[in-house]
């Protein structure tokens, strides 16, 4: 396919790049000479982020339009997601690496207009990114293949120490299938963890679907570490947000700055040692084991199919 400007640089598209880890990762990729597409939901924040990336990567203002792009759409609105895809396709540039990084951690049970099967945290953190990704896979194929990275979290795993968790039963199910809407029980922390488990289910099912893809597309997921200085906990009381960066290093071993975490975003996308991986979970810069529940492929495929139905991708479903 002939791309605009005979595009020769590799292109990375990062969702949630207007803030936090996504913005830090966009800077790293731009510094590594990638064309960087920053996706976010606020035009104002994106404009500032694009400028921050330009400055961090020492890109001349005259070159900025060709090297750093922004894409504005809202993951809580599937029509907006489809418009975001169309806008990206209209740029007519390749897509080599897609990092599904955007995410929310909410304190109230809400729904988006597209679904009452999944509550909002799962919609924004898994269903909408799934739609975005599936619609971009053809462009990745036209680009000669590529890498899809999905940002999950260690919180998906009840066996790994979560010092602030209210529930201590490490063997409990994080996400029973009859409670995807939170109608039986809803808690912000639990549903954040559930959405990150759903991210792993999606990663493993999609990796399986793309196993023999030609050109090759791989799918892997990772936890970026605990990075309390981002805006993720923005809905929580300010006092908690204030003390979290001080307390977390005392409770957790993998507390990082956004810049340090962003090095992993770059490594998982570009380091040759990860090049052939498909269907893996990374943590602390290497492969790691995700929870037992994340490897329940019946649940994984069931939730994947429900997400396809919720986003109008009925023909993308898999046999369970
Ligand atoms: N920070 C941690 O300790 C940690 C640990 C494990 C995993 N993670 C994961 O890392 C990822 C990035 O988190 P972060 O800590 O960098 O959080 P953050 O600072 O809050 O950044 C989240 C990004 O997602 C965007 N976003 C939120 N809702 C959106 C929506 N409806 N539509 C489009 N974009 C939306 C935000 O846009 P706005 O700027 O407009 O709000 C922002 O750019 C998340 O998936 C999170 O679950 C974080």
Automatic annotation (TrEMBL):
<protein>
    <submittedName>
        <fullName>Uncharacterized protein</fullName>
    </submittedName>
</protein>
<dbReference type="InterPro" id="IPR002347">
    <property type="entry name" value="SDR_fam"/>
</dbReference>
<dbReference type="InterPro" id="IPR036291">
    <property type="entry name" value="NAD(P)-bd_dom_sf"/>
</dbReference>
<dbReference type="Pfam" id="PF00106">
    <property type="entry name" value="adh_short"/>
</dbReference>
<keyword id="KW-0560">Oxidoreductase</keyword>
<dbReference type="GO" id="GO:0016491">
    <property type="term" value="F:oxidoreductase activity"/>
</dbReference>
<keyword id="KW-0521">NADP</keyword>
<comment type="similarity">
    <text>Belongs to the short-chain dehydrogenases/reductases (SDR) family.</text>
</comment>
<dbReference type="InterPro" id="IPR020904">
    <property type="entry name" value="Sc_DH/Rdtase_CS"/>
</dbReference>
């Amino acid at each position: 396919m002939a791309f605009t400007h005979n595009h020769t640089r590799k292109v990375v598209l990062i969702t949630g790049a207007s803030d936090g880890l996504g913005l830090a990762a966009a800077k790293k990729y731009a510094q590594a000479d990638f064309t960087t597409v920053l996706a976010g939901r606020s035009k104002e924040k994106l404009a500032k982020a694009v400028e921050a990336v330009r400055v961090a990567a020492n890109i001349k203002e005259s070159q900025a339009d060709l090297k750093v792009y922004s894409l504005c759409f809202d993951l809580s609105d599937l029509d907006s997601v489809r418009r975001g895809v169309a806008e990206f396709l209209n740029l007519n540039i390749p897509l080599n690496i897609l990092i599904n990084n955007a995410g929310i951690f909410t304190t109230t049970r809400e729904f988006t207009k597209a679904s009452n099967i999944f509550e909002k945290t799962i919609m924004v953190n898994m269903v909408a990114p799934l739609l975005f990704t599936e619609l971009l896979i053809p462009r990745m194929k036209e680009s000669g293949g590529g890498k899809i990275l999905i940002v999950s979290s260690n919180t998906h795993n009840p066996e790994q120490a979560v010092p602030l968790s209210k529930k201590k039963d490490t063997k409990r199910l994080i996400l029973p299938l009859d409670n995807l809407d939170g109608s039986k029980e809803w808690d912000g922390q639990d549903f954040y963890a559930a959405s990150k488990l759903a991210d792993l289910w999606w990663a493993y099912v999609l990796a399986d679907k793309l196993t023999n893809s030609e050109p090759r597309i791989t799918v892997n997921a990772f936890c970026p570490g605990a990075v309390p200085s981002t805006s993720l906990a923005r809905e929580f009381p300010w006092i908690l947000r204030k003390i979290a960066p001080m307390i977390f290093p005392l409770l957790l071993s993998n507390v990082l700055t956004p810049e340090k975490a962003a090095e992993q975003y770059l490594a998982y996308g570009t380091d040759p040692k990860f090049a052939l991986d498909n269907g893996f979970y990374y943590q602390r810069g290497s492969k790691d084991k995700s929870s037992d529940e994340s490897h329940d492929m019946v649940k994984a495929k069931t939730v994947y199919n429900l997400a396809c139905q919720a986003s109008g991708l009925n023909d993308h479903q898999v046999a369970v």
